[in-house]
Amino acid sequence: MTDLVSEAFPVVSDLAEFPAALADGVVAIGNFDGVHRGHQAVLGEALEIARAQSVPAFALTFEPHPRTVFNPDKPVFRLTPEPMKARVMAATGLDGMVSLPFTRAFAGLEAEAFVHEILRDKLHIRHAVTGYDFHFGRGRRGTPDFLRAAGQSDGFGVTIVTAATDEAGEAVSSSRVRAALAAGDVVEANALLGYRWSVAADVRHGEKRGRDLGYPTANLALPAETELAHGIYAVRARANGGEWIDGVASFGRRPTFDNGAPLLEVFLFDFSGDLYGQTLQVMLAARLRAEERFDSVEALIAQMDRDSAEARAVLASLAPLGPIDLAVNGPPR
Fold first, then answer.
1. Alpha carbon 284 to chain centroid distance?
2. What residue ranges do the domains of the chain occupy?
Protein backbone atom coordinates (compact mmCIF):
# COMPACT_ATOMS: atom_id res chain seq x y z
CA MET A 1 0.00 0.00 0.00
CA THR A 2 1.23 3.46 -0.87
CA ASP A 3 0.44 5.91 1.93
CA LEU A 4 0.65 9.44 0.47
CA VAL A 5 -1.16 11.29 3.24
CA SER A 6 -1.41 9.41 6.53
CA GLU A 7 -2.41 6.06 7.95
CA ALA A 8 -5.88 7.52 8.50
CA PHE A 9 -6.26 8.16 4.76
CA PRO A 10 -5.06 5.14 2.77
CA VAL A 11 -4.12 5.60 -0.89
CA VAL A 12 -3.78 2.42 -2.93
CA SER A 13 -2.94 1.76 -6.56
CA ASP A 14 -3.18 -2.04 -6.43
CA LEU A 15 -6.67 -3.49 -6.10
CA ALA A 16 -5.16 -6.49 -4.29
CA GLU A 17 -4.32 -4.09 -1.46
CA PHE A 18 -7.76 -2.48 -1.26
CA PRO A 19 -8.47 -1.94 2.47
CA ALA A 20 -11.28 -4.08 3.82
CA ALA A 21 -12.33 -1.06 5.88
CA LEU A 22 -13.47 0.71 2.68
CA ALA A 23 -15.54 -2.21 1.36
CA ASP A 24 -19.34 -1.87 1.19
CA GLY A 25 -18.77 1.86 0.84
CA VAL A 26 -19.75 4.75 -1.39
CA VAL A 27 -17.32 5.48 -4.21
CA ALA A 28 -16.92 8.78 -6.08
CA ILE A 29 -15.47 8.05 -9.53
CA GLY A 30 -13.59 10.48 -11.77
CA ASN A 31 -10.24 11.86 -12.88
CA PHE A 32 -10.60 14.71 -10.38
CA ASP A 33 -7.61 16.73 -11.63
CA GLY A 34 -7.63 19.83 -9.47
CA VAL A 35 -10.29 18.50 -7.09
CA HIS A 36 -12.07 21.78 -7.84
CA ARG A 37 -15.48 22.92 -6.61
CA GLY A 38 -17.25 20.85 -9.27
CA HIS A 39 -15.40 17.73 -8.14
CA GLN A 40 -16.08 18.66 -4.53
CA ALA A 41 -19.82 18.55 -5.31
CA VAL A 42 -19.40 14.92 -6.43
CA LEU A 43 -17.28 14.06 -3.39
CA GLY A 44 -19.71 15.86 -1.09
CA GLU A 45 -22.63 13.86 -2.46
CA ALA A 46 -20.73 10.62 -1.87
CA LEU A 47 -19.93 11.72 1.69
CA GLU A 48 -23.54 12.64 2.40
CA ILE A 49 -24.83 9.27 1.20
CA ALA A 50 -22.13 7.37 3.09
CA ARG A 51 -22.64 9.20 6.36
CA ALA A 52 -26.41 8.68 6.17
CA GLN A 53 -25.79 4.94 5.88
CA SER A 54 -22.84 4.81 8.30
CA VAL A 55 -20.47 3.40 5.68
CA PRO A 56 -17.10 4.64 4.33
CA ALA A 57 -16.71 7.01 1.39
CA PHE A 58 -13.71 6.94 -0.95
CA ALA A 59 -12.60 8.15 -4.35
CA LEU A 60 -11.67 6.09 -7.38
CA THR A 61 -9.37 7.97 -9.70
CA PHE A 62 -6.75 7.28 -12.36
CA GLU A 63 -3.06 8.09 -12.98
CA PRO A 64 -1.69 9.42 -15.25
CA HIS A 65 -4.33 11.59 -16.84
CA PRO A 66 -6.00 9.65 -19.71
CA ARG A 67 -5.34 12.43 -22.21
CA THR A 68 -1.61 12.13 -21.52
CA VAL A 69 -1.74 8.39 -22.18
CA PHE A 70 -3.47 8.86 -25.53
CA ASN A 71 -1.34 11.84 -26.57
CA PRO A 72 2.03 11.52 -24.78
CA ASP A 73 3.64 14.18 -26.98
CA LYS A 74 1.22 16.73 -25.48
CA PRO A 75 0.92 15.83 -21.79
CA VAL A 76 -1.84 17.47 -19.80
CA PHE A 77 -0.94 20.37 -17.52
CA ARG A 78 -1.70 18.68 -14.22
CA LEU A 79 -3.33 20.85 -11.58
CA THR A 80 -2.88 18.26 -8.84
CA PRO A 81 -0.28 15.53 -9.23
CA GLU A 82 -1.20 12.43 -7.24
CA PRO A 83 0.29 13.48 -3.86
CA MET A 84 -1.55 16.81 -3.90
CA LYS A 85 -4.74 15.20 -5.19
CA ALA A 86 -4.63 12.82 -2.24
CA ARG A 87 -4.02 15.70 0.17
CA VAL A 88 -7.05 17.62 -1.09
CA MET A 89 -9.17 14.47 -1.13
CA ALA A 90 -8.31 13.86 2.52
CA ALA A 91 -9.25 17.46 3.32
CA THR A 92 -12.77 16.89 1.95
CA GLY A 93 -13.43 14.26 4.62
CA LEU A 94 -13.17 11.14 2.48
CA ASP A 95 -11.89 7.95 4.07
CA GLY A 96 -9.43 6.94 1.34
CA MET A 97 -8.49 6.98 -2.33
CA VAL A 98 -7.96 4.29 -4.96
CA SER A 99 -5.68 5.55 -7.74
CA LEU A 100 -5.63 2.99 -10.55
CA PRO A 101 -2.85 3.04 -13.18
CA PHE A 102 -4.36 4.23 -16.47
CA THR A 103 -2.85 2.51 -19.49
CA ARG A 104 -4.01 1.81 -23.04
CA ALA A 105 -4.82 -1.73 -21.92
CA PHE A 106 -6.95 -0.40 -19.08
CA ALA A 107 -8.69 1.96 -21.52
CA GLY A 108 -9.60 -1.10 -23.60
CA LEU A 109 -11.48 -2.70 -20.72
CA GLU A 110 -15.12 -3.15 -21.62
CA ALA A 111 -17.57 -1.05 -19.61
CA GLU A 112 -19.24 -4.23 -18.30
CA ALA A 113 -15.88 -5.54 -17.06
CA PHE A 114 -15.13 -2.24 -15.30
CA VAL A 115 -18.41 -2.56 -13.41
CA HIS A 116 -18.22 -6.27 -12.65
CA GLU A 117 -14.51 -6.81 -12.07
CA ILE A 118 -13.63 -3.54 -10.36
CA LEU A 119 -16.69 -1.91 -8.82
CA ARG A 120 -18.52 -5.09 -7.80
CA ASP A 121 -15.91 -7.81 -7.30
CA LYS A 122 -12.88 -5.82 -6.11
CA LEU A 123 -14.27 -2.73 -4.41
CA HIS A 124 -17.56 -4.27 -3.27
CA ILE A 125 -19.33 -0.94 -3.53
CA ARG A 126 -22.72 -0.10 -2.11
CA HIS A 127 -23.21 3.09 -4.11
CA ALA A 128 -21.42 4.95 -6.92
CA VAL A 129 -21.40 8.72 -7.47
CA THR A 130 -20.07 10.37 -10.62
CA GLY A 131 -20.27 13.66 -12.45
CA TYR A 132 -22.63 14.13 -15.36
CA ASP A 133 -19.79 13.98 -17.90
CA PHE A 134 -17.90 10.91 -16.64
CA HIS A 135 -17.46 8.06 -19.13
CA PHE A 136 -15.56 4.81 -18.79
CA GLY A 137 -14.67 1.64 -20.65
CA ARG A 138 -13.60 0.93 -24.21
CA GLY A 139 -14.95 3.51 -26.62
CA ARG A 140 -16.33 5.48 -23.64
CA ARG A 141 -19.38 3.20 -23.67
CA GLY A 142 -19.81 3.59 -19.94
CA THR A 143 -22.19 6.53 -19.87
CA PRO A 144 -24.10 7.75 -16.82
CA ASP A 145 -27.20 5.88 -18.09
CA PHE A 146 -25.11 2.73 -18.55
CA LEU A 147 -23.87 3.00 -14.96
CA ARG A 148 -27.43 3.47 -13.66
CA ALA A 149 -28.59 0.35 -15.47
CA ALA A 150 -25.55 -1.61 -14.25
CA GLY A 151 -26.26 -0.56 -10.70
CA GLN A 152 -29.83 -1.81 -10.93
CA SER A 153 -28.71 -5.21 -12.21
CA ASP A 154 -25.70 -5.57 -9.89
CA GLY A 155 -27.30 -4.29 -6.72
CA PHE A 156 -25.64 -0.95 -6.04
CA GLY A 157 -27.03 2.55 -6.06
CA VAL A 158 -25.97 5.24 -8.53
CA THR A 159 -26.11 9.02 -8.24
CA ILE A 160 -25.18 11.34 -11.09
CA VAL A 161 -24.25 14.88 -10.04
CA THR A 162 -25.06 17.76 -12.39
CA ALA A 163 -22.54 20.46 -13.28
CA ALA A 164 -21.52 22.76 -10.45
CA THR A 165 -21.53 26.43 -11.41
CA ASP A 166 -19.81 29.51 -10.09
CA GLU A 167 -21.47 32.72 -8.97
CA ALA A 168 -21.88 33.79 -12.60
CA GLY A 169 -23.65 30.56 -13.52
CA GLU A 170 -20.71 29.12 -15.51
CA ALA A 171 -19.74 25.48 -15.07
CA VAL A 172 -16.66 24.87 -12.94
CA SER A 173 -14.12 22.70 -14.77
CA SER A 174 -10.46 21.77 -14.79
CA SER A 175 -10.16 23.43 -18.19
CA ARG A 176 -11.34 26.74 -16.73
CA VAL A 177 -8.80 26.49 -13.91
CA ARG A 178 -6.00 25.80 -16.39
CA ALA A 179 -7.12 28.70 -18.57
CA ALA A 180 -7.15 31.06 -15.58
CA LEU A 181 -3.61 30.05 -14.59
CA ALA A 182 -2.44 30.44 -18.19
CA ALA A 183 -3.85 33.97 -18.15
CA GLY A 184 -2.16 34.72 -14.82
CA ASP A 185 -5.50 35.05 -13.03
CA VAL A 186 -4.49 33.15 -9.89
CA VAL A 187 -7.34 34.67 -7.89
CA GLU A 188 -9.89 33.27 -10.37
CA ALA A 189 -8.19 29.87 -10.43
CA ASN A 190 -8.15 29.70 -6.64
CA ALA A 191 -11.82 30.69 -6.47
CA LEU A 192 -12.73 27.85 -8.86
CA LEU A 193 -10.63 25.40 -6.87
CA GLY A 194 -11.91 26.47 -3.47
CA TYR A 195 -8.35 26.49 -2.15
CA ARG A 196 -5.11 28.16 -3.17
CA TRP A 197 -3.19 26.36 -5.90
CA SER A 198 0.39 25.32 -5.33
CA VAL A 199 3.29 23.62 -7.08
CA ALA A 200 6.05 21.49 -5.59
CA ALA A 201 9.54 20.60 -6.82
CA ASP A 202 13.03 20.02 -5.51
CA VAL A 203 15.20 23.10 -5.06
CA ARG A 204 18.05 23.09 -7.59
CA HIS A 205 21.23 25.09 -8.02
CA GLY A 206 20.95 28.13 -10.27
CA GLU A 207 23.21 30.88 -11.54
CA LYS A 208 23.32 32.59 -8.11
CA ARG A 209 22.31 35.92 -9.71
CA GLY A 210 19.65 36.53 -7.07
CA ARG A 211 22.26 36.41 -4.33
CA ASP A 212 24.31 39.03 -6.13
CA LEU A 213 21.21 41.22 -6.43
CA GLY A 214 20.37 40.92 -2.73
CA TYR A 215 17.51 38.52 -3.46
CA PRO A 216 18.75 34.93 -3.04
CA THR A 217 16.18 32.59 -4.53
CA ALA A 218 15.20 28.93 -4.36
CA ASN A 219 15.03 27.72 -7.95
CA LEU A 220 12.47 25.16 -9.08
CA ALA A 221 12.06 23.59 -12.52
CA LEU A 222 8.36 22.91 -13.12
CA PRO A 223 7.12 20.31 -15.62
CA ALA A 224 7.44 21.47 -19.22
CA GLU A 225 3.67 21.28 -19.69
CA THR A 226 3.00 23.79 -16.88
CA GLU A 227 0.85 26.51 -18.42
CA LEU A 228 1.26 29.15 -15.72
CA ALA A 229 1.60 32.69 -17.06
CA HIS A 230 5.08 34.12 -16.72
CA GLY A 231 5.26 36.89 -14.18
CA ILE A 232 5.80 37.90 -10.57
CA TYR A 233 3.66 36.33 -7.83
CA ALA A 234 2.98 36.82 -4.14
CA VAL A 235 3.56 33.37 -2.61
CA ARG A 236 3.91 31.32 0.50
CA ALA A 237 6.30 28.39 0.58
CA ARG A 238 7.32 25.58 2.86
CA ALA A 239 10.10 23.04 2.69
CA ASN A 240 9.36 19.35 3.28
CA GLY A 241 5.99 20.09 4.85
CA GLY A 242 7.34 22.59 7.40
CA GLU A 243 6.13 26.06 8.30
CA TRP A 244 4.84 28.43 5.62
CA ILE A 245 7.04 31.44 4.86
CA ASP A 246 5.88 34.49 2.92
CA GLY A 247 7.72 35.45 -0.23
CA VAL A 248 7.70 36.69 -3.78
CA ALA A 249 8.42 34.57 -6.84
CA SER A 250 9.23 35.00 -10.49
CA PHE A 251 8.18 32.42 -13.05
CA GLY A 252 9.67 32.88 -16.48
CA ARG A 253 12.76 33.07 -18.66
CA ARG A 254 14.70 35.95 -17.01
CA PRO A 255 14.72 38.24 -20.10
CA THR A 256 17.04 40.77 -18.48
CA PHE A 257 19.76 38.11 -18.38
CA ASP A 258 19.57 34.94 -20.49
CA ASN A 259 15.96 34.38 -21.64
CA GLY A 260 16.54 30.71 -20.80
CA ALA A 261 14.29 27.83 -19.86
CA PRO A 262 11.40 28.73 -17.53
CA LEU A 263 12.18 28.58 -13.81
CA LEU A 264 10.23 29.39 -10.68
CA GLU A 265 12.54 31.52 -8.54
CA VAL A 266 11.30 32.04 -4.98
CA PHE A 267 12.62 34.68 -2.59
CA LEU A 268 11.51 34.02 0.98
CA PHE A 269 11.15 37.00 3.31
CA ASP A 270 13.24 37.06 6.47
CA PHE A 271 14.69 33.61 5.79
CA SER A 272 18.24 32.31 5.82
CA GLY A 273 19.07 28.67 5.32
CA ASP A 274 20.05 26.00 2.84
CA LEU A 275 17.13 24.63 0.82
CA TYR A 276 19.10 22.81 -1.88
CA GLY A 277 17.72 19.33 -2.50
CA GLN A 278 14.62 19.91 -0.38
CA THR A 279 11.12 19.74 -1.78
CA LEU A 280 9.56 23.19 -1.75
CA GLN A 281 5.81 23.64 -2.00
CA VAL A 282 4.89 27.08 -3.31
CA MET A 283 1.35 28.40 -2.88
CA LEU A 284 0.34 31.20 -5.25
CA ALA A 285 -1.78 34.00 -3.77
CA ALA A 286 -1.79 36.63 -6.54
CA ARG A 287 0.02 37.67 -9.71
CA LEU A 288 1.60 41.09 -9.25
CA ARG A 289 2.74 41.84 -12.79
CA ALA A 290 4.01 40.34 -16.03
CA GLU A 291 7.63 39.41 -16.61
CA GLU A 292 9.66 42.33 -17.95
CA ARG A 293 13.07 43.07 -19.41
CA PHE A 294 14.99 45.89 -17.68
CA ASP A 295 17.68 48.09 -19.20
CA SER A 296 19.88 47.92 -16.11
CA VAL A 297 20.45 45.83 -13.02
CA GLU A 298 19.68 48.91 -10.90
CA ALA A 299 16.23 49.25 -12.51
CA LEU A 300 15.57 45.55 -11.92
CA ILE A 301 16.50 45.78 -8.22
CA ALA A 302 14.29 48.85 -7.75
CA GLN A 303 11.35 46.94 -9.24
CA MET A 304 12.12 43.89 -7.10
CA ASP A 305 11.96 46.13 -4.03
CA ARG A 306 8.52 47.32 -5.12
CA ASP A 307 7.40 43.75 -5.85
CA SER A 308 8.48 42.61 -2.40
CA ALA A 309 6.58 45.42 -0.71
CA GLU A 310 3.45 44.64 -2.73
CA ALA A 311 3.71 40.92 -2.00
CA ARG A 312 4.04 41.60 1.73
CA ALA A 313 0.89 43.73 1.60
CA VAL A 314 -1.08 41.07 -0.28
CA LEU A 315 0.00 38.29 2.06
CA ALA A 316 -0.63 40.31 5.22
CA SER A 317 -4.37 40.23 4.57
CA LEU A 318 -4.58 36.66 3.26
CA ALA A 319 -7.38 34.58 4.78
CA PRO A 320 -8.39 30.95 4.10
CA LEU A 321 -10.85 30.52 1.24
CA GLY A 322 -12.78 27.90 3.17
CA PRO A 323 -12.46 24.66 5.16
CA ILE A 324 -10.59 22.78 2.42
CA ASP A 325 -8.10 25.62 1.96
CA LEU A 326 -7.59 25.71 5.71
CA ALA A 327 -6.98 21.95 5.83
CA VAL A 328 -4.69 21.88 2.77
CA ASN A 329 -2.72 25.09 3.30
CA GLY A 330 -3.01 25.65 7.03
CA PRO A 331 -4.21 28.59 9.14
CA PRO A 332 -3.28 32.20 8.30
CA ARG A 333 0.11 33.30 9.58
1. 13
2. 2-161, 196-329
At 21, which helix (H) or strand (E)?
none
**Which residues, 6 or more positions from 312, have their beta carbon under 8 angstroms from its beta carbon?**
246, 269
Residue 258 has pLDDT above 80, yes or no: no
Rounded Cα gap, residues 115 and 137, in angstroms: 9
In angstroms, the Cα distances linking 25 to 16, 29, 55, 155, 206 are 17, 13, 5, 13, 49
pLDDT at 145: 94
CATH entry, 196-329, from 1.10.600.10, 3.30.70.20, 3.40.50.300, 2.40.30.30: 2.40.30.30
Residue 1: what residue type?
M
Query: Domain 2-161 belongs to what topology?
Result: Rossmann fold (3.40.50)
Q: Tell me the whole-structure pTM to 2 decimals.
A: 0.93
**Count of residues making up the chain:** 333
